[in-house]
Amino acid sequence: NVAQLHSESLSDDSTRKFLWKLQDGETIESVLIPGSGKQSENTLCISSQVGCAMACTFCLTGTQGLKRHLTSSEIITQVYTVSRNYPVNKIVFMGMGEPLHNLQNIERSISVFTDSKGYGISPRNITVSTSGLIPAMEELMSKTNVRLAVSLNASTDQQRDLLMPINSRWPIRELLGACARILKKGLRSQRVLFEYVLLSGINDS
């Protein structure tokens, strides 16, 4: 097995966290988030890298630096193993790592997740989160109909430069322009979501 389940923990709100040990001894995490209500659906948050190169100041993984990309098999194994014990209705690439920095393996895993002979999950039930790698964003969304989530976290470049070093390469105006192009070219059901972490006294005014 390319990723061995090392431990599973259950929180008070029924969220389950899975710690995986990889063949080279590195570890990653994924989280199963239960749905609520009569039509409840479980969402599995999965990792795409060991560590991360983006160095966002509010993210613990970002302080570790990038150790390596996960293979498509390591990504898929997270879903395969969890789904053997719990229903997995939605997948979000929001765990450890910047998914679009590992674009090729993300695309391979998405093709398995959406294939009728694989997991048969609708692309609309798969969300890929990114800190804003514009070329990879546009490439991914030209090939798939998954949901894109952009981690924004600031309303000015001055703020975002401090929180997310990637902003010095692709500032907010360019990032929003790319989102607009994706929506214009994409299928009607495509959406771009924005993620915003509120940090007291920094970006919450």
Description of the molecule:
This protein is of the alpha/beta class and 205 residues long. It is built from five helices and ten strands. An eight-stranded mixed sheet has the order 1-2-3-4-7-8-9-10, with helices on one face. Strands 5-6 form a two-stranded antiparallel ribbon. The protein is globular, with a radius of gyration of 17 Å. Helix 1 (72-83) packs parallel to helix 2 and helix 3 runs parallel beside helix 5.
Mind sketching the topology for me?
Blueprint: E1 3-10, E2 16-22, E3 27-33, E4 43-45, E5 49-51, E6 66-69, H1 72-83, E7 90-93, H2 103-114, E8 126-130, H3 134-143, E9 147-151, H4 157-163, H5 172-185, E10 192-195
Parallel strand pairs: 4-7, 7-8, 8-9, 9-10
Antiparallel strand pairs: 1-2, 2-3, 3-4, 5-6
Helix pairs in contact: 1-2, 3-5
Q: What is the overall number of helices?
A: 5
Envelope shape:
globular
H and E string: EEEEEEHEHEHEHHE
Strand order of the largest sheet: 1-2-3-4-7-8-9-10
**How big is the Rg?**
17 Å
Uncertain ranges: none
How many strands appear in the DSSP assignment? Answer: 10
**Largest sheet, described in full?**
8 strands, mixed
Instruction: Indicate the mean pLDDT.
Output: 94
For the terminal residues, how far apart are their CA atoms? 48 Å
What is the multimeric organization of the chains shown?
single chain
What proportion of the residues form beta strands (DSSP E)? Answer: 15-25%
Query: Could you estimate the helical fraction of the residues in percent?
Result: 25-40%
Query: What structural class results from the helix and strand content?
Result: alpha/beta
